Amino acid sequence: MAKANPYGPQGWTPARIDDLTGKTYVITGANAGAGYEAAKIFLSKGASIVMLNRSTDKSEAAIEALKSEVGKDADVRCIKMDLADLGSVRTAAERVNAEVPQIDAFIQNAAIEQVATQQFTKDGFESQLGTNHYGHFLLTSLIFDHLVESKARIVIVGSGGHKMGLKRIQLEDMNFDNNYNPHVTYCHSKFAQMMFAYDLERRVKAANLPVSVHVCHPGAARTTLSKDEANKMTKFLFTLLSPLAQSAERGAWPEVLCATEDNLKESAYYGPTKRGEMVGPIGECNLEESVLDAEQAGKLWELSKAETGVRWPLPGYNPDSTEIGP
Ligand SMILES: NC(=O)c1ccc[n+]([C@@H]2O[C@H](COP(=O)([O-])OP(=O)(O)OC[C@H]3O[C@@H](n4cnc5c(N)ncnc54)[C@H](OP(=O)(O)O)[C@@H]3O)[C@@H](O)[C@H]2O)c1
Q1: Fold of 18-307
Q2: For residue 24, which of 155, 184, 230, 283 sits 20 to 30 Å off, Cα-Cα?
Q3: CA distances from 160 to 190, 227, 282 (A)
């Protein structure tokens, strides 16, 4: 059932944002698509942007384009980072901690999707899970103390795909060695990102830390997602459905909302609310309940720590106790 839109019938729009001078937003994958459009909105309101992108050439082109659209004094720069290479994520995290004094929101926007055949990241993870979830998990853990000091928001860009795949974490075969499917495996990676997000939200609340976690999705947006890696059928379907989708700019609004709007709800999921939550006014969307499963989330958390080799001393949330769990 559609939820009442707290931002009125037209939904949330960037017109609600005041001046953002003095604020800094760190965005992964901001050289294209929704991340680029989000950067443009923040810059147009006076904020500073640090993009974490994998391609130097594309980042230089994006910075040039942003300055030409927003103004030559726009404060935007890039720290190089490839989420599919944990070594690169570690180096980028060190630079963020050293070079970005204040982070108002850290937006986990970058992703790959619909990779036609089973591929692996540099560290041997199925490529979509490795890039979208493990890369962001490691990055978040390594800059977490800095996010706490900054009283930052953590924004995780999910997907309606979390309702379409397995709707659980395939702990017994995280690389999909036995049942690889481009769409299901992408949905699994977005489910993992969102399950991690809600787990992190519970943990920071239990630990009474001054950070908040928010989850959104862009709906169906005309971006560059699926451009290279997808198989021919997926590309054909995306081209066919493209006129039904919304612009990349509107696809960026939910992540900008999560980074700036006051009084966001807990365990919520923001995005377009019409036509199967693919387009339309931005408000609160419906979640697949299994993504809130705290027990499974705890297993994903421990596995993600082991796979990425981080110590993240943020205790688990124990729903049966007022104490913080192990
Ligand atoms: N578009 C939709 O309809 C839709 C629907 C549901 C959810 N989403 C979600 O929305 C978010 C934004 O996607 P989008 O549609 O804007 O896609 P996009 O246009 O393809 O942009 C994705 C961004 O992620 C970057 N990226 C990919 N792999 C990376 C890596 N290994 N390391 C660092 N950056 C990497 C890309 O960089 P390169 O330019 O170098 O590739 C690009 O900047 C994603 O989380 C996606 O899952 C999108």
Answers
A1: Rossmann fold (3.40.50)
A2: 283
A3: 9, 19, 14
